[in-house]
Amino acid sequence: MSKKAILISGTPGTGKTCLSLELGKKLSLNVLNIGDFAIKNNLIIEKDNNRDTLITKTKKIVPKLKKIILNSDKKLIIESHYADIIPTDLVDIIIILRTHPYILEKRLKMKNYSQEKINENVAAEILGICTNYALNKYPKNIIFELDTSEVKINEAVEILNRIITLRPDKYKFGFVNWMKDLEKNKDLEKYFR
Fold this sequence. Notes:
Rossmann fold; five-stranded parallel β-sheet; 9 helices; 19% strand
C-alpha cells in the first residue's frame, strides 16, 4: 500500500489551514481539513460549550478518510490539530507547525478566542502536545517541526516543500522548545493555573 498522506498538524493558530492551502496550490495537491470534513459529513457528536470546541466521531471519520486517501490518484494534504488519527500505513510524512507562545497568544486573540481557550491552546503549544501525539503514533523518522512564529507565508511554504522532498535533519522533531524562554521570563504560571 503506498503512503499518500502528508499530514500538517499543530496547535490552533499555528497556520495549518493557510499554509496547507498554499502548499496544496504549489504542489497541485488536494487539501482536506478534518474539522470541515467532520462537519460536512455529520460526524460531530456534540459541541463542548465550556471549551468552545466540537467533539467528533473519530471512529467514523477514520474509515471515511482512509477510503479517500486510498482512492486518491495523488498524495493528499490532510490538516488538523488531531491529524494523528490517520493510520500509520497511509502517512508519508507529518509536519507539526509550532509557534512561540507569545505570538500564538496574539494570533488567538485576533481570532476572538476566549482567554480560557487561549490559555488552553498556548499551554498545549508549550507542552508540544501535537508533537507528542505524533510521536506516540508514527515512526520518528517521518515527524518534522516548523516554527511558524516569524516566517512569511511564501517562505513557510517553500520550507514545507523542502521538508517533504528532502527531509532535512534541521527540521526533525525536537528542536522547538519554548520552556526555557518562558521560565526565564517567569511566564509559565500565566498559562498553567
